[in-house]
Amino acid sequence: MVYLDHAATTPMRPEAIDALTAALAVVGNPSSIHSAGQQAKRLLEESRERIAATLGADGIELVFTGNGTEAVNLAVKGLWWSRQGSGSDAVPRPRILVPAGEHHATVDTVEWLALHEGATVVELPLDELGRLRLDVLEAELARDAASVALVTMLWANNEVGTIQPVEEVARLTARAGVPLHVDAIAAYGQLPIDVHALRRATDASAGGIRDC
Length: 212
Ligand SMILES: Cc1ncc(COP(=O)(O)O)c(C=O)c1O
Fold this sequence. Notes:
Layout: H1 14-24, H2 35-53, H3 68-84, E1 95-99, H4 104-117, E2 120-124, H5 134-144, E3 148-154, H6 166-176, E4 180-183, H7 195-206
Parallel strand pairs: 1-2, 1-3, 3-4
Bound molecules: pyridoxal-5'-phosphate.
Residues 8, 67-69, 72, 103, 105, 154, 158, 183, 185-186 line the site of pyridoxal-5'-phosphate.
């Protein structure tokens, strides 16, 4: 059999299996103060630094989750609630801008927010190659950026591999002062990802706004 569906699941490299197997043998809760716990904590934090470096990020910026669906829920719902404010600072921002053709992890999350939190999900069309139409995004942001809670999109499509113009989108959202969430699950390991470089590029275009 020739296995070709790496977008859905890539077979693990033998060295990754070896590293995981070795890590599973380390006993100890990283929150414990005894030596076994501290050994587990060291392994966890060293791994966090090494993985963050592959993303152009600092270890402190990396939050591990159990899977991709959990990460998408954390990011999209977290951004949604943080953008609504609370108490006397409550600012309703009902719109979530989402390209067509997103992964179900995102589709289900924004549908949940529509059903339970009153979000208005605005689907953005794709061009003939499956890329987000930047002109439509720009027009939606220009129409009323203050009503947009967030923009969320795939970096690379997990089924057909289309790569989205993430830097251009990040520039547009930063200029509009709207946070952007990018699901890079299918891009990580296939494309160079440097979140600090992306932030520098968007900072420059936003004239100092840092809201991604
Ligand atoms: C682009 C993308 N987002 C989200 C997910 C969901 O990840 P998980 O299956 O780990 O929950 C996947 C899974 O393949 C994916 O390819």
